[in-house]
Design a protein that fits this description.
203 residues, alpha+beta, FAD/NAD(P)-binding domain, 3 domains, three-stranded antiparallel sheet, two-stranded parallel ribbon, 17% helix, extended, binds flavin-adenine dinucleotide
């Protein structure tokens, strides 16, 4: 399977407890002795046991990528026509500093018809960087001191990498809040900048 870059750093835990409806399916509790704020390993195992228990795997297709979706019909009758590539994710998120182009795979496609379509492709799945008004000034700032860098939260892995550094975290969602908490035990100074007052909302 291709190495799809995902934001699951080793110390990633939920920020809602296992009794919250945003973490647990109704009528299907986490197993005994699960931490109140489980790690992503627990969450992954929980989803696996849910899918196994309700025999969902025959209905799930991994490594299939939706290429297009059209409604065929009119306002009262019709179906969704989906074009799906079957040989892996449409694109990989390229790791920081890796210059490889996005790996497009379009070779085998199938067309399927469905009555209903639920789109859950993750509104924050692909990282977005700001476009700097003056790229030259940014590059100069980065070059000015060894070790300076600007990174997206998807590339965060271990807080130890910030040891002794001064960190500015922009944004106070779940990722930003967690990076502040985790790196503050290692960094020289951590500053959080946010335009909202809500710290640690769903990421
Ligand atoms: C530190 C932290 C703690 C959090 N704690 C909680 C919590 O306690 N409770 C909570 O509810 N949330 C929590 N969140 C937020 C939660 O992790 C995200 O909101 C959630 O993962 C979003 O899920 P999603 O399915 O919408 O999107 P994603 O997880 O981004 O999944 C989208 C999927 O769609 C796939 N995809 C994209 N395009 C296509 C395509 N064309 N064809 C096929 N597949 C495609 C992607 O590959 C991906 O697998 C937390 C987040 C962080 C960072």
């Amino acid at each position: 399977m291709p190495n799809l870059y995902i934001p699951q750093y080793p110390s990633c835990n939920t920020n809602k407890c296992i009794h919250s409806t945003t973490v647990t399916y109704p009528g299907f509790p986490f197993p005994p002795y699960t931490p109140l704020y489980p790690s992503y390993h627990h969450v992954q195992a929980y989803h696996h046991s849910f899918a196994t228990h309700f025999e969902l795997y025959p209905y799930i297709r991994f490594n299939h990528s939706l290429e297009s979706a059209y409604w065929v019909g009119d306002a009262s009758n019709g179906f969704w026509e989906l074009s799906i590539s079957t040989d892996g994710p449409r694109e990989e998120i390229i790791p920081l500093n890796n210059t490889l182009a996005h790996d497009l795979r379009h070779s085998s496609r199938i067309t399927r018809h469905f009555d209903h379509l639920a789109v859950a492709i993750g509104r924050n799945h692909y990282p977005k960087f700001p476009v700097w008004a003056d790229d030259a000034a940014t590059n100069e700032w980065l070059r000015n001191r060894k070790g300076r860098r600007i990174m997206h939260s998807i590339y965060f892995r271990e807080p130890e990498e910030f040891a002794g550094k001064i960190i500015l975290v922009v944004g106070a969602g779940a990722s930003g809040a967690d990076i502040v908490i985790q790196s503050s035990g290692h960094a020289k100074k951590v500053q959080l900048q946010s335009i909202t007052f809500v710290v640690g909302g769903d990421g």
